[in-house]
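Allow me, if you will, to draw on your knowledge of protein folds for a short while. I have a record of one protein: its chain in single-letter code and its fold written as discrete structure tokens. Kindly check, if you would, that the fold set down in the tokens agrees with what the sequence suggests. Thank you for your consideration; the sequence and its tokens are set out here:
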Amino acid sequence: MKYKIYHSQRFKKELTKFDKKFQDRVDKIEDELVENPYSGKPLGVKWFREKRYENYRIYYLIYDDLESVFMAGISDKKDQQKVINTIKLLLELFRKELESLIDKNKFT
């Protein structure tokens, strides 16, 4: 089963701050997650994970019931715990945002 990749508004905004090399690396990570969404390091639960690239962490949520991976945030090591805690606080909002994106894609 292949998963679809979606970006949160927060993730899109953060990603634009990085250079092309970093953005290309994120594309490769996403290509890997389509086939194997559980390839990253788990963050306390099976469905919340991170992938590392250089000094940065890329955070994502896995929704098996929606066959989707939701790219949720990016941080450096210094802000890692703050971003993880923020994502955990916003889980319900992230799910609603993802469901909205999926609904929009059904009609495009």
Remarks:
- Strands lie at 4-7, 41-42, 48-53, 56-63, 68-76.
- The first helix runs from residue 9 to 15.
- The first strand starts at residue 4 and ends at 7.
